[in-house]
Amino acid sequence: MWRWWYRSRTTEPFYHQSIICVFPASPHDGAVFDAITGFLADAASIRHEEPADADHIDTEYDFVIIGAGSAGCVLSNRLTEVKHFNVLLIEAGDSEQAFMDIPVIATMMQFTDANWDYQTEPQKAGCMGMRHGRCSWPRGKVVGGSSVLHSMMHTRGNRKDYDRWAANGNPGWDFKSALKYFKKSENLDIPELAKNKIYHSRNGPLTIEYPKWRTPLSDAFLKAGVETGAKIVDYNGETQTGYSIIQFTTSNGTRVSASRAFLHPITNRKNFHITKNSFVTKILIDPWKKKAYGVEFRKDGKKFVVIAKREVILSAGAINSPQILMISGIGPKEHLTEKNISTIVDLPVGYNLQDHWALGGLTFIINTTDSIRFERVATLRNIIKYYNQRSGPLTAPTGTEAIAFIDTKNPKNDDGYPDLELLFVAGSLVSQSTYKHAFAIDDYIYETVYDPIADMDTWMVFPMILLPKSRGRIMLKSKNPYKKPLIYANYFSDGGHDEKVILYGIRKTIELSKTEAFQKYGSRLHDIPIPNCAHLRFNSDAYWICAMKTLTVTIYHHCCTNKMGPKTDPEAVVDSRLKVYGIRGLRVVDASVMPHVPAAHTNAPTIMIAEKAADLIKEDWGIPV
Questions:
Q1: For the chain, what is the domain count?
Q2: The CATH number of the domain where 379 resides is what?
Q3: pLDDT at position 436
Q4: Which of 27, 349, 370, 572 stands the most exposed, by the fewest C-beta atoms within 10 Å?
């Protein structure tokens, strides 16, 4: 029933067909009828509130923004506050749909047309247990971008991240400056935390709340942290290190994507156009004047050219932005020459690729029925509860409930710089079969390790590296813009640092599982070994290093491929005002400009970057901020 639902294309007939599948009861049943009515009302509402595809595309705009992801949505909102600025936002994907905002099915969004569906290239280490040795890297191809696909976790990172950005030659990007923009976006609907007005705000468009529904296992995780000497913290407050229930970008139990927060409020602005299902083929650059003057894209089989009177702003993300730059003639000269592309400016585009990755499948079995299991979530009763009351387990973002930030270098430092995150899930790879497909786990490995516990209640932790040393690269497969770029993740290429941090996280999680808080549930480590690691003693360091190289999973925080830095930095692509070196009229505003990945899930930092960039752009065009 549900499998057909989430694999369906998100076209209008889908709504009515999916209702029949999801609600196999008499339409005269009052509760079912109300739920159906609620779903259809949501479907109609979101399409009405999201800015419509422009009926007519003008030949020129002040600003042309490429990509309606988190950054592009913010920029569109803030730049059109200036009434004499007109803005065109170009998005390759289609509209956000109502079902995409049901938190519990976030993982399923990877199986829709809203996903670019990228995969990494095979590598020496990492992703070895994934199909064909390739890790799946989902990216949002939809209005709202990856904020429509991700698990809605809102984490800013550590003050030391941003102070480090500034110290490396990027003035104005220190934590004090960044905090202003984090707060500008934020509408924190957690009263006990919102009292702290130094770190929080209730005035922004992006609503943040605790999950409306969660299992008692998340409380066990917090209690286990306290038992082992840690503290409960507001990780977006004064200090980050410690344990917490996750703060999510949801409102009344429903996803708040960047589109809902920033585009819906500007639907009726006359100085804003959006064109959807529009594939950018290149940025138009005058090679003599070294100036970007427009964008070429295709829609409905036709080629369009729009002129940017002031600036082209590239906000296509850490994979697409470097691809578009390189196809347009900005990138490493040797690589562009190989692809028969004339180099306009020789810059290290595509280098410095960073990501947060984790060991997947660190699973614990319990002897109660307290975990999230899909068959218990996807019941008619719960569906009705969601659509009628916005309550129940459908409001739970993919089962991720709690989080811990740990400084492995100095674990007892309450104000440390965390290099490890423990992401707690009140279920596991067996609680939703979609995890197997989302992570592209090899069938034999999954069947050997996880099929034997398919009917059991479980929980798991993703031990995730926050400050990785490994660096990857984005390269072109072809100068054809329709050919997906080559993604070299280069996990484990750092000489051993990253794997030691993850190993610490595994040991810490096992320690937590043995606390009184978890033993209340009879928690025990799932000990069927991964086949290609079975020659090593289970639970030895060597076994876990083998396991993490086998079940390597991205946490979807790809960044840093158009690095921000001073002109003296040989790795820098943009300056501290996000202008591309050597080209006038062109900025990059998205996660690709990060100098290094912060100790955060990257949606919040990306929104912060766009908020600040909007002010920089206004300043540069003489608008007071």
A1: 3
A2: 3.30.560.10
A3: 81
A4: 27
Look up residue 326 and give its two tokens. 């390189």
Same domain flag for 69 and 147: yes
The pTM for the full model equals 0.94
Separation of alpha carbons 380 and 105, rounded Å: 15
Distance CA 165, CA 594 (A): 8
Dump pLDDT digits (tens) for 568-621. 999 999 999 999 999 999 999 999 999 999 999 999 999 999 999 999 999 999
- Give, in order, the Cα–Cα distances in Å from 206 to each of 175, 358, 403, 463: 20, 28, 21, 28
Per the CB < 8 A criterion, the answer to whether 74 and 257 are in contact is no
Structure tokens at 122: 């095979």
Q: What are the tokens at 43?
A: 């479907």
- Phi, psi of 389, deg, nearest 5: -125, -5
Q: Which of 424, 418, 550, 481 is nearest to 130 (CA)?
A: 550
- Whether 448 is in a domain gets the answer yes
CA 27 to each of CA 1, 20, 386, 623: distance values in angstroms, whole numbers, following the listed order: 18, 10, 18, 56
Paired sense of beta strands 457-465 and 473-475, if any? unpaired
The pLDDT value recorded for residue 373 is 93
What type of residue is 266? Answer: I
Q: Which two tokens stand for residue 361?
A: 């499948």
Q: Which two tokens stand for residue 36?
A: 């159906």
pLDDT in tens, 71-118: 999 999 999 999 999 999 999 999 999 999 999 999 999 999 999 999
Residue 582 lies in a domain: yes
| 182/315 same-domain check | yes
| β-sheet bridge partners, residue 273 | 88
The confidence band for 65, taking pLDDT boundaries of 50, 70 and 90, is very high
Distance from C-alpha of 127 to C-alpha of 116, rounded to nearest angstrom: 19
User: 251 lies in a domain?
Assistant: no
| Pairwise CA distance, residues 146 & 13, whole Å | 24
Task: Give the mean pLDDT of 376-389.
Answer: 92
Mean pLDDT of 359-372: 97
Maximum distance among all Cα pairs of the chain, rounded to whole angstroms? 71
CA nearest to 97, candidates 74, 114, 77: 114
* Position 9 confidence tier, pLDDT thresholds 50, 70, 90: very low
Domain around 347: 52-96+142-207+258-352+558-625
Which residue type occupies 240?
A: Q
Which positions are annotated as active-site residues? 557
State the Cα–Cα distance between residues 236 and 234, nearest whole angstrom. Answer: 5
Residues 134 and 39 in one domain: no
